[in-house]
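Extended Data, panel c. Modelled sequence:
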Amino acid sequence: MSRSSDLRTAKKQSAFTLIELLVVIAIIAILAAILFPVFAQAKEAAKKAADLSNNKQILLGTMMYMTDYDDVFPMLRNDKPAWANPVTVPQVNSGHIVLNPYIKNKGLWKSPNDSMGRCDALASGYSSNEALPTGGPISYTFSYYGIPAGRTYGFGIAGWDSVSVSTGLSSSVMTPSLASGAVGAPAQTIWLIPSYISWSYWTGLMQHRNDQREYAFEPSQLSNGLATWPKVTSVPGAWCGAGDAMAVGAYGGQTNWGFADGHSKTMKRNQIMHTQWATAPATADANKLRNLIHFDESFKQ
């Protein structure tokens, strides 16, 4: 046999057959199917950790603020708004702006999962581009205290007031924030809530819900409940236009909650309130059933 014939035979023997190539491709496909979900889970876990870090930094800013203000928690809103069209300056009366001197990092107010578009107060509608007048998202809010004003389910911590631009008078439903001493069990009382709302952004106002049950229950459980991200509750025209939406921030169905003592904890929404708060709230209130947003320590069972 000639040398050239030997070389041809060696080349034929070293080449992959069609069956071998198909087997290799099948193995790669199987490995990819196994690994891609793992990569997605790792990415979600990294976002969750970053969100938890944001949460803790905002809580630290809250604690620093309180040392300067007689141990009283910040307000959700206080004083006159600075409305314009478009709104291009931060609202000095909003909760996130109040904490700005203590946090000093606007980026901490955006949750890594929050990709919801924000209203820019212009006819063009929505954009998550921070170069536009929104100034970037506000992904967190404070629990709302509104019992003195007769808002039955406003049993949180932060007060609210919107002083009239025309009269200079406080709103008729104004309530002050609670002092730390009024919160019976700070380590079991939720203060900071990841709430993605299309009209909650830096140059606007930190938005909240008057009914604190909305944070605990899905729309299927409570008619005005909020969806768990990435699902959203559509509320077209609530503030800016057809694209208005809301959701409770979550990572794989779990949410990072910030507590009044300054710590954070990851829990599913159904862990923060007894289901009777959705189905029979008067009974839940009378029996002091579990409610981690409530400021009264009697509701922590």
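Strands lie at 118-119, 126-127, 140-142, 190-197, 233-234, 245-248, 255-259, 264-267. This feature is highlighted in the accompanying rendering.
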